[in-house]
Amino acid sequence: MTETETTDSSALDMRLLRRAIELSASAAAKGNMAFGALLADPEGNILLEAENTTFTERNPLNHAESNLINKAVAILSPEQIATATLYTSCEPCAMCSGAMYWGGVNRTVYGMSEHDLLAITGVNDHCPTMRGVGCRNILQSGQRHIEVSGPHLVEEACAVQLDYFADRLPQSS
Ligand SMILES: [Zn+2]
Q1: Which of 3, 5, 43, 65 is catalytic?
Q2: Please, are residues 58 and 110 in contact by the beta-carbon 8 Å criterion?
Q3: In which band, very low, low, confident or very high, does the pLDDT at 2 lie, cut at 50, 70 and 90?
Q4: 32 — phi, psi (to 5°)?
Q5: How far apart are CA 4 and CA 34, in angstroms?
Q6: Å from CA of 66 to ligand 1 middle
Q7: pLDDT the model gives residue 6
Q8: Residue 132: its pLDDT value, please?
Q9: Are 14 and 81 a contacting pair, CB within 8 Å?
Q10: In sequence order, what are the residues at sequence separation of 6 or more whose Cβ sits closer than 8 angstroms to the Cβ of residue 5?
Q11: Percent of the chain having pLDDT more than 90?
């Protein structure tokens, strides 16, 4: 196989990641922050989907990934979670990286990076993005290996954020 060939799994990854980005737009359309995530089994079947609900549920902890993992541990088996991949429109933050670790997720694929998000939001009370500690740095401190793939489809993921923040960024004077 040459380097330019795409494996089935990566084509599958991109299809599922696109769905997570669709969910990010859906979250924004409902009045929440523009983040989406899903869990899929090794064959690519979607097990669960979740969106950010920080505003509609008035809980700043309700990121797409934390919502997803809370749902997953309630209704899926540990084996299902352990073999699933978590797809998310944006790199998991420190809280969600911890939730993935403690929730038993072993693989994640993300769209835009936390640095990409910070570049869009800047210093912003509405979305006070952390300064890119990086999910790999957090997950590598754990006691088991968690595979991380990303960033991917950055332009598509950022486009949703740029649309969301178009009228929410501090005005430059
Ligand atoms: Zn998060």
Answers
A1: 65
A2: no
A3: very low
A4: -110, 175
A5: 32
A6: 6
A7: 46
A8: 73
A9: no
A10: none
A11: 80
Residue/partner pairs of 76-83 with CB below 8 Å, 24 or more apart: 76/39, 76/47, 76/48, 78/104, 80/41, 80/47, 81/39, 81/105, 82/106, 83/41, 83/42
How crowded is residue 114: how many other Cβ atoms within 10 Å of its Cβ? 21
Report whether pLDDT(7) > 80.
Answer: no
Hunting for tokens 């060939």 — which residue is that? 5
What confidence tens digit (pLDDT) does each residue in 98-156 have? Answer: 999 999 999 999 999 999 999 998 888 878 888 878 999 999 999 999 999 999 999 99
What token pair was written down for 58? 């008035």
Max avg pLDDT among 32-46, 118-132, 158-172: 32-46
* 160 Cα to the center of ligand 1, angstroms: 17
The string of DSSP letters for 28-73 reads HHTTS-S-EEEEE-TT--EEEEEE--TTTTT-TT--HHHHHHHHHH
3: annotated active-site residue: no
Phi/psi of residue 98, each to 5°?
-65, -40
How remote is the CA of residue 159 from the centroid of ligand 1, in Å? 19
CA dist 141 to 32, 108, 136, 148, Å?
Answer: 31, 16, 9, 13
Identify which has the larger pLDDT, 65 or 122: 65
Which of 119, 106, 129 has its CA nearest to residue 35? 129
Q: Please count the residues of the chain.
A: 173
